[in-house]
Structure formats: C-alpha cells, structure tokens
C-alpha cells in the first residue's frame, strides 16, 4: 500500500502537468496567426521584431523566475505564470499596434519562464523520489504530446471559424483561449511539491550560484545543450515562420494548410506517446543525432528545391518528426547531469543562453526581412534557408554523451564556490 501511495504521488503530478500543458497550449489563432497579425496592422518585419520581444523577455526573466521555483516550489511558480499568461491574452484581445503586440509577447514570454525548468524539475524530482528517474524521457514525451491534442482541434476549428479574417471571429477565438487558460489555473492548484523539492529553500542567490557551479563543472551538459538549441532555433523558430509561404509556393493551396497541420499534429501525438518504444530500441544519443542530421538535410533541401510539392511535404514531415522527438530526448539527457536542489535554476540559466541564440539568429533574420535580400520571395527564402542550414550543421557538430553519474555533484552542491 505504501508503495502504491508513493507511486501515485509522481503519477498525480505527471497527470496534472499533462492536462495543464494541454489547456495552456490551446491557441485557436495558430492556423491563421500570421494572417491575424497582418489584419491587425503588422508587417512581416513587425512579426519578427515582436518575436524578438518575446525572446528578450525570456532572457531577462528566466533566472529570476527559476529561483522562485526552487525557492517556493513549482506550484507557486505555475500559479504566477498562469495569471501572467492570462494577462497576455487580455492585451492581445485589444492589440492593434506593434507596441501592444510587443507588450503581449513580453507578458507571454514572462509567463513561459515560470514554467520553463520548473516543469522538468517537478517531474524529474517526483520520479526520482520513487526511484523512477529512468522513465523521464517517456514521461516528457507523453507530456509533450499534450500540445498536439488541442492543436488538431484548434487548427481545424480556428481556420474554419476565422475563414473571413473578420475582427469578431478573431475575438471569439481569443476568448476561447482565455477560457482554456482559466482551466489551467484550476489544474495547477492541485500540484503537490515533492519532498525532495521542498527540502531546498535556500536564498535565491544560492540557487544561482549552485546552477552556475553545475554548468561550470559539466562541460558535456553545455555541449548537449548546444546540440539541441542551435539545431532547434533555425529549424523550428526561423523555418517555421516561413513554412507556410514555402509550402504554398511549392504548390499546396492555402485551404489545405489547416488539414496538413492537423495531420502533422496527429502524427506528432502518436510519436510522443510511443517514445518509450523508440528509446527501448535506440539510444537517446542515437535518436538525438539522427534527428539533428535529418533537420540539416531537410532545410538544406528546402534551400535548393522550392517548386516541388512532394519535396516540400517531405521536408515538413521530417522536420515535424524531429521537432517532436528532440525535446523529450534532450530533457532526459540534460536532467541526468543536473543534481537536485537547484535544478529549475540550472535549467533556467541554460535557457538564458538559449535566448541569446534566439536573439542572434532570429535577429539576423529580422534584419534580412527589414532591409530585404533578393528581388523575390523565393530568392529571399533561399538565403534565409541557406543560413539556417549552415547554423544547424554547426549545432550537429557538438558531441552528445550520456551522464555517467547524475549524483556526482550532489554532495558538493552546497559548497559551490
């Protein structure tokens, strides 16, 4: 009975995080988001500068909010993040200028930082408390799959409902998203902080010192992080912004984009739920390397072939698979390097570096969009995709290894210099 009770503690938190992730990811505007921005008066460059405001907010607030999670627990962090996220949606409801859109994105980025690192730390500590840390990748895969469930429905419904791109249609979709966030607020109230997490309540500056110490003493963690993030940003954050015009230019009608995204979300959901099956047959390192190389080859292909629908669909499919698998694989490997106590802060410190690369790479693309490269959309995308392919190649050069001992820094964390 005691064993069942112990296991139910981790399972309870995993279930709550799954459903909170599901409702928190509901965005009915997603399939027509760029069109929504254009209807509200933003330009292509404005969309990218707005995205940069989100990245800048994440970079500034990542560590302070991470220390809140380590200091007061994941539950408090989730509650604050949810309330700020709801505020962001309210601003978006009225946004009609670049300034208001940037404010909405700053609030959205701030909200994300209250969940970033804290979710992984909560799940890992809950599993570790029950001797189930080796289940991390499978669990994170299932939690990651939560974003695809609403994506399927939201993509189909959102595109259909806002087919006229009318203001009243936009506002209803935003209000529905706000209602979903209210459900998430109710869910995070039920989170139970694990005992291991509750035992670490040092001064926030101590958590930052501990996190820096872990990073300094674990170069393999940095290499793993670089392999993940330097591949992710150009293949997802940048390529994803130009995915729709690339598919359309290759021959896919606009009305079929919603169907394609819904099918992609369904496939991603299936893969996320079957990640345990994959990791039982292939190592986490092998899968991370294969998806990284696949991302490079697909973006490189898109650089030179932009008039074939079959090629475009293949590029979309492979990148969607890579995007689905890489984060839970990275999460499993990264948490193996990080000792308990300042886990959320350490992950937040890494996210700051991630935000720096966001600013560097996305900022470069924003400059390209602002000043223009190439006389046509096709030639501009060729330059952008070529730069992305080169950056992805650099990211793949960073070696990936499995941590030998997750606890080897555990006894030294309290005496970090």
Automatic annotation (TrEMBL):
It is found in: Cell membrane. Gene3D superfamilies: MFS general substrate transporter like domains (1.20.1250.20). It comes from the Bacteria. Its main location: membrane. GO terms for cellular component: plasma membrane. The keyword S-adenosyl-L-methionine does not apply. Residues 1-407 form the Major facilitator superfamily (MFS) profile domain. InterPro entries: MFS (IPR011701), MFS_DHA3_Transporter (IPR053160), MFS_dom (IPR020846), MFS_trans_sf (IPR036259). The chain crosses the membrane at residues 16-38, 45-64, 76-94, 99-118, 138-160, 172-192, 221-240, 252-272, 292-319, 356-375, 381-403. Pfam families: MFS_1 (PF07690). GO terms for molecular function: transmembrane transporter activity. It is a multi-pass membrane protein. Keywords: Membrane, Transmembrane, Transmembrane helix, Transport. This is Major facilitator superfamily (MFS) profile domain-containing protein. It comes from Tumebacillus algifaecis. The lineage of its organism: Bacteria, Bacillati, Bacillota, Bacilli, Bacillales.
